[in-house]
Design goal:
With 176 residues, this protein is mainly α. The protein has helices spanning 2-12, 17-47, 56-79, 89-106, 112-139, 143-175. The longest helix has 33 residues, at 143-175.
Amino acid sequence: MKGMAATVVDKLKGHKPEVLIDKLGERLAYERTGVRLYEPLITKVGAASSGPLVDLAMLTKIRDDERAHFELVGDALRSIGADPTAMTPCADIAGVAATGHLQVITDPRTTVPQALNSILMIELGDNAGWDLLIELARGSGHEVLASQFEVALKTEQEHLALVQGWLKQAVLDEGT
């Protein structure tokens, strides 16, 4: 009830909480997808007989961070009176877009560097999505949520740097 009251107050202040809810739904779908993408990547890296040096423990940590971010966004939706199980328009788009990456990563013909390239695209989108969500939350008067999302963004920036480093090394190793 408290969350629904906050949403009504947002409407009365002239904010459009449905936009925030849609983008939260998108972020929720994206983080759920992150978990689903890192699972087969962990398997692929673990099964690779040779190839780039990718830290399996760090891949597992990234997957766990994605799961924690999923829970954070679900809690944020509940806190503003929204249903985290509802499929928002942007969540639907995020899910459809992710199917290509899932196909790339799970294809047995895909190499580890190719899978890393796909996950890099996901991490770039993840970083941009958190950045926009922070601005939207802050602009809607949800300062506490924005602060929590900034912590998630910092973690996502670390993920991005790791994946970029692994991919760079993998490509350089292939090319020399």
